[in-house]
Specification:
13 helices; seven-stranded antiparallel beta sheet; alpha+beta; 653 residues; homodimer; nine-stranded antiparallel beta sheet; 22 strands; 17% strand
């Protein structure tokens, strides 16, 4: 075990694009790697530490316990298919875990973890066949034939995660055995699915973005071309029809023709991310614009206030526009990860800080909500309204994927824990970017940032306890001769009251990227102050499920009412808020509101005259706390959207 | 083809319990059979005619087209499993169709249909094995072993529908080949699953209620005992765990311990119906009370205003209490059929007319909503809010089960069309009951009713165009010496304004069964007048998805706003109603309301200040029409619950 305080220096062998999960050859903003941005503490520092000390180890334990690593040994020892465990895509969770470990090793030079990673890779390597094929679920006697089930088989999806793991490894320690395995797999994919090969795609997108990144890493344009083929083929009904319909895996409408993200949310996000990657590398401005349009529509009409995506449990999919029921929110953790992937790529491509706003919202209210405080249980889905307390899942068994009201240690479909792990390990890269003209800081955390700009390297130290308070202090630690530009993101939610102090002068700033262009000296301090008073949010009138309800947000955090914090109210389903009594003082991350319990008429039939409002219902005060932190204190009920007193329907006189 | 006008007399060989889908050996009210209650026209007469002339024939066409009848031939000819088509339970739809045909033949003596039924049965008979086993999906080389998959295999479910078909046949034409097949199957089930046999149950309840009815029909108590065993075994985790959890098939909690209906809605309804049957026959008052409690809770907290049940598409299941989103209503047609089965059994057992209220609501707003006006397309699910017009399903292909916004001709899982067909064919039996003391009329339709009472047979002719108007005229056509009691149901919705006229005297009557006890003479007329003015309904405040919305009901009909009837409003998602302008005149089945379109601010993010209300939005008048009739005029959007002007959330000043 080690702590943040014991972090060693970064490995010195990091090459160009080192430590970067995404590294476009052309973009408006240049990403920074894990060697350039180091999170030193605070909200995200604590979570990176949790990842290092608990989450990754927990994932290692469970992929082993579930037999998903043994699947590789079983392949070598001829014990397949009889000894295989897990779903078709079980291999991929081992790869996502390896990716998380690779970033973590790159970030902290954790040699013990490095040994474990190498041991894992050594068990995978002998499973790869002569021609590069690698999968424990297909191709052996008694198993389905290779690529016989592209709809559900996930073979290319598994390669995708293998390639992303290899990129993480290559950009931290360099070409090792994992990279070699990935290269053979990627060559195999191009061989089999390239021009003249199988004219189809994978039921679960992922290979697209992975191939582009692997192309960026290796410099081999063949992988990019293969990704382009996959993006272009999709949507023409190349996969079979299924009960969910082809929209489930985005094979109903070509990527270029779709106007909004639809179908399975994670698939939609991964595909869109891959399409942006292809578009950026092939100078396809039309395609970038198309994806921007799809995302804009999705954010305006199909996204929860948490940033969560996916309104349907059935098909884990997007619903219709404005169909966003709180109590049936699917909002899969992995769709949040996918949304961050997509928004980050568009941030790099366009420089528009609105994408960083979405990343912030999703990080704090989806990704941070998934792991339990101890890092050993996870939400797969992230509901906005928990009606029943539910029971605590077994700490010893994998859970069905979405039925629990409390975090579960593992799932039969366990994409979320490893996705959280790889995101947290590589999080530094999402904080800031650079360009010739300067440095852009997008996410605020205690951190040190170094970036190459025209004329040399600039460095800053960011000090803040954001999001507890809104003060972000940026101290210049390294600079270059002459002017350069420091840009700070003012979040979209900070509509009124944000200020920037530079050189003793304070000025009001508005949402967007606020720039200071001047010559900086080491020791110069710039302060951004964000307004952290709690604020009401009202829903678009077309979201029927939220009529008469308000949410409270504070800074980037969506707050919620958990029954644990509402003594005197049996469960949050009956709570009503009195809006005039919101305590807007800026203390800690929470806020206090006045609530009362609705007077309920428990009749035999729930449709009639409507609410019997008791104006004398006792009013109590309840703390709203950050959504990410809920369900850490035993079974409870919870809601983000709070009915306002007087909003209940009554039959007109 | 034949019409109602050509109906012949009933077959004369009908025995006791003749023509009755349900015939308890002991009950407060005695059911009447198809020979005793004849629907002569009006709303339900038209639908019985549609069933006779279109729906049944349509179902015959499709079970053939889908290859589900050929499965039986393939079994005989050794072409299984290679030639088998359809899901595990495909046999059951042939059986449900045969049940519908049997009731229809019993009702109308349709000899052509009778020949077709016999031909179908003749193709099934040779598939039955020596020991009574009968299923096209299991037991042959290359197929799963018998009863190797009780969770999903549906073998006992298929027998259940076979037995119900046999009861229909037996109670209309008597013991024929179908009854003999059913008897051998029932014996086989008792042999294999009886005491000392397989200690388990079927993943889909149905065999329970079917075995009890078959026991009632045959007089063989062994079948009742087997049903009792199935009811008692369930809920103890005898089936394997599945991704949906054991609650999906009610194997998580014993029937006696459950306090509300939960899990897969159709399964829950069928199981509860079977439990009532077992309880009634075994004098188990506790069990009847338990089911009454479960149903009461379900009606109060888990039922849509249409009577529809099932809030989750995922698992086709009940949600939590008050989790009833309009736009994700599953409300499966078959769950409505199951609800009618359950409520009818409790009506017979308790005499409480509230169960007839539920039957009426469900018949008009679920069962009648499923078939298209031409009887050749069906809703599998019955949403309460259609957000997107959608496209018209192919008239030539089976649809996925629940994805269409318009009725589809057939489904891969096609329980609904045949369930509608068997319900409509046997509908007469649901209209009235008798007891020693007299006759009880529960559902109003143009009909003739005859019933044995103490001292002989009484008869009435009911004339009404209900639900267009609220006047129900009951003329005595046959009577006995001395007093007897005529009871008429005043629906629960007729809280104010219902009157009963007898002997020239009119009096106000309240919801419940209203009785007239006297000596009647042939030609006496009693008139019930029900208040048909449209009325507002407001939801229980705990149904968050309906806050700020009202529905309009008229008599037993739930009305809806269909975009077709709202010129000037792009789609119903944007409609707001002005409650003061409801036209409450009693004309036809519909009603006119004033609506306007909400002013919408299409921003990039749907959470902020909230609604921008335009008080000058043009007001238009739109007709609300009966929900059952929607989606018969091309693609449209539709909603039952209408947002009230001023109900949209705004951020407090």
């Amino acid at each position: 075990m080690f702590s943040i305080a014991e972090l060693t220096d970064f490995p010195t062998h990091l090459a160009s694009a080192a430590g970067r999960p995404v590294s476009p050859s052309r973009s408006l903003l240049t990403p920074l790697g894990l060697d350039e941005v180091r999170i030193e503490g605070g909200f995200w520092g604590e979570r990176q530490e949790l990842n290092a000390n608990a989450i990754i180890e927990h994932c290692e334990h469970w992929v082993d316990k579930m037999g998903w690593v043994d699947n590789f040994d079983a392949a070598v020892e001829g014990r397949l298919p009889s000894d295989r465990t897990g779903r078709e895509f079980a291999d991929s969770d081992v790869y996502k875990l390896i990716e998380a470990m690779a970033w973590e090793i790159g970030r902290t030079n954790n040699t013990a973890m490095d040994a474990r990673l190498q041991a894992l890779v050594a068990r995978i390597a002998p499973v790869q066949e002569e021609d590069g094929y690698l999968n424990t679920h297909f191709g052996r006697p008694g198993q389905g034939e290779r690529y016989s089930d592209l709809q559900w088989g996930h073979e290319l999806y598994c390669y995708g995660h293998l390639l992303q793991a290899a990129v993480a490894r290559g950009r931290t320690v360099g070409d090792d055995q994992l990279v070699q395995i990935a290269r053979r797999a990627a060559d195999h994919v191009c061989e089999v699915f390239g021009a003249g090969g199988i004219e189809s795609v994978c039921g679960h997108p992922e290979i697209e973005t992975a191939l582009v990144e692997f192309s960026r890493y290796t410099g081999d344009a063949r992988y990019l071309e293969q990704a382009r083929l996959f993006v272009e083929r999709r949507g023409h009904g190349v996969l079979g029809d299924i009960e969910f319909g082809r929209s489930y895996y985005q094979d109903d409408v070509p990527v270029r023709d779709a106007t909004v993200l639809a179908g399975h949310s994670v698939r939609a996000m991964y595909l869109a991310a891959g399409a942006v990657d292809v578009a950026v590398e092939t100078d396809d401005e039309d395609l970038v614009r198309t994806i921007i349009g799809q995302l804009s529509e999705t954010l305006a009409k199909r996204t929860y206030i948490t940033g969560g995506m996916g309104a349907h449990h059935e098909g884990e999919s997007f619903g219709s526009d404005f169909e966003l029921p709180s109590d049936r929110a699917y909002s899969e953790t992995c769709a949040g990860v996918g949304s961050i992937m997509l928004n980050y790529r568009l941030l790099l491509a366009t420089g528009d800080s609105a994408y960083a706003d979405v990343i912030e919202r999703t990080l704090f209210n989806v990704v941070a909500a998934s792991p339990a405080a101890d890092g050993r249980a996870f939400f797969y889905t992230n509901t906005l309204h928990q009606r029943e307390p539910g029971s605590i899942p077994s700490a010893d068994e994998a859970s069905p994927r979405a039925s629990s009201s409390l975090r579960a240690p593992w799932f039969e479909v366990s994409c979320c824990p490893t996705n959280v792990a790889r995101t947290l390990a590589s999080l530094g890269s999402y904080l800031a970017t650079s360009s010739d003209s300067g440095l852009q800081i997008h996410q605020y955390a205690d951190s040190t940032i170094a970036a190459a700009v025209s004329g040399g390297t600039v460095g800053v130290k960011v000090s803040t306890d954001y999001p507890v308070h809104g003060l972000v202090r940026v101290e210049i630690t390294d600079t270059v001769d002459g002017e350069w530009e420091l840009a700070l993101r003012v979040p979209g939610w900070a509509r009124i009251g944000a200020t920037l102090t530079d050189n003793g002068e304070t000025r009001a700033v508005e949402p967007g990227a606020v720039s200071i262009r001047r010559a900086f000296a080491v020791g110069d301090v710039i302060e951004l102050s964000l307004p952290m008073a709690a604020r009401w949010s009202a829903p678009d009138p077309r979201i029927d499920a939220l009529r008469g309800q308000l949410a409270v947000e504070r800074g980037p955090l969506v707050l919620c009412l958990e029954s644990t914090d509402a003594p005197g109210i049996a469960n949050v389903n009956e709570a009503r808020i009195l809006t005039e009594l919101l305590d807007r003082t800026d203390e800690g991350e929470g806020v206090t509101v006045a609530v009362c319990a609705a007077t309920l008429t428990d009749g035999g039939w729930p449709y009639g005259a409507g609410a019997v409002v008791d104006n004398d219902a006792p009013v109590t005060r309840a703390a709203l706390r950050p959504y990410y932190s809920w369900a850490n204190r035993g079974p409870s009920t919870m809601r983000i959207w709070l009915p306002v007193v007087g909003s209940d329907s009554v039959v007109p006189a």
